[in-house]
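C-alpha cells incoming
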C-alpha cells in the first residue's frame, strides 16, 4: 500500500462528505446536518463493509458507541471518525502500521464507488449549481479570479470587512478550538447566505456545505490561477482563524460570477473580469 498525496486525501474526504450530505438530514433546531444509525447501517451493508467476511452486524453497534455513545445520530466529523474506526476493525494490524494510508485505502475500495454513483445519478439542470460535488469543484477550477478582480476586491476591502466582521465574530474572538470555530462559522455562513437571499435561490444548504469544505481545502494559487500574485487579499490584510476573510471574499466572487452567468445564460460572452465589475460595483 503506497503513500498517497495530499490531493488524494482531500479527494477521499470529499467523497465521504458527498455520501454524508446525500444521506444526512438537516436539523433546524441546531442548524446542523446529522446522519442516523439506520442510514449508516444500510450504507455499510450496501457497500459490503458489513458482511460475514469483514464486520458482522453484531459488531457494528460497538463502533457506533465508540464514536457517539449518547446518540444515534452523527455529524460529518463523527461520520469520518466512524470510517476510521471501521478501517481499524477490518484489519487492525495494517491500520496500526499506517492508519492514514489504510483509511484512504478503505475509502477508495468501499466508499468511493458509492460516491461516484451518487454523482452520476445527480442531474445538473440548466444553470443551477447542481448537487454533484464535481460541479462545485468546477466552479473553483474554472471561475478564475484574475489580477483585475483581485484589484477590485481590494478596492472594496473595508466594505467587505464590515460585512465579514458582522457575521463571523467567532473567527476573530478569543477561541482556540478549531472545530468549534469551524462549526460556528459554517452556521454563520448559513445566516449570511439566508439574509442576502443567496440560499436557497442560488445555492441550497447541501451544496453550500460541500462548497465550504472545498473552499477550506483550496490553496490561493488554485483559487486565483495567478502565479505572480496568488493572494486574493494581501496576507497582512487577511484575518480569521478558519474561514478567513480571503476565503469569504473568494466566495463572494464565485457566487457573483455564477449569479451573472445564471441570469445571462451566456457565460462565454463576457470575461470574468467584466462580470466582476458589474457585480462588485
Amino acid at each position: 500500500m503506497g503513500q498517497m498525496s495530499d490531493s488524494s486525501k482531500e479527494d477521499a474526504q470529499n467523497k465521504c462528505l458527498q455520501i454524508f450530505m446525500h444521506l444526512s438530514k438537516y436539523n433546524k433546531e441546531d442548524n446542523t446536518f446529522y446522519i442516523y444509525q439506520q442510514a449508516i447501517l444500510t450504507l455499510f451493508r450496501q457497500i459490503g463493509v458489513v458482511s460475514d467476511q469483514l464486520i458482522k452486524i453484531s459488531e457494528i453497534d460497538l463502533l457506533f458507541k465508540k464514536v457517539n455513545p449518547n446518540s444515534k445520530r452523527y455529524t460529518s466529523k463523527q461520520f469520518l471518525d466512524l470510517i476510521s474506526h471501521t478501517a481499524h476493525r477490518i484489519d487492525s494490524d495494517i491500520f496500526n502500521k499506517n492508519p492514514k494510508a489504510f483509511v484512504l485505502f478503505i475509502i477508495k475500495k468501499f466508499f468511493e464507488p458509492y460516491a461516484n454513483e451518487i454523482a452520476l445519478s445527480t442531474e445538473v439542470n440548466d444553470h443551477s449549481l447542481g448537487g454533484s460535488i464535481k460541479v462545485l469543484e468546477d466552479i473553483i477550477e474554472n471561475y478564475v479570479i484574475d489580477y483585475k478582480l483581485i484589484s477590485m476586491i481590494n478596492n472594496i476591502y473595508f466594505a467587505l470587512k464590515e460585512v465579514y466582521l458582522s457575521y463571523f465574530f467567532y473567527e476573530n474572538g478569543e477561541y482556540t478550538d478549531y472545530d468549534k470555530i469551524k462549526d460556528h462559522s459554517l452556521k454563520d455562513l448559513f445566516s449570511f447566505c439566508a439574509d442576502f437571499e443567496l440560499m436557497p435561490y442560488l445555492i441550497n444548504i447541501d451544496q453550500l456545505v460541500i462548497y465550504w469544505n472545498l473552499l477550506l481545502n483550496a490553496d490561493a494559487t488554485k483559487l486565483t490561477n495567478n502565479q505572480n500574485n496568488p493572494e486574493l487579499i494581501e496576507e497582512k490584510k487577511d484575518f480569521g482563524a478558519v474561514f478567513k476573510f480571503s476565503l469569504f471574499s473568494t466566495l463572494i466572487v464565485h457566487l457573483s460570477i455564477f449569479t451573472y452567468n445564471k441570469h445571462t445564460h451566456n457565460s462565454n460572452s463576457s470575461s470574468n473580469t467584466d462580470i466582476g465589475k458589474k457585480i462588485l460595483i
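note: The longest helix spans residues 99-121.
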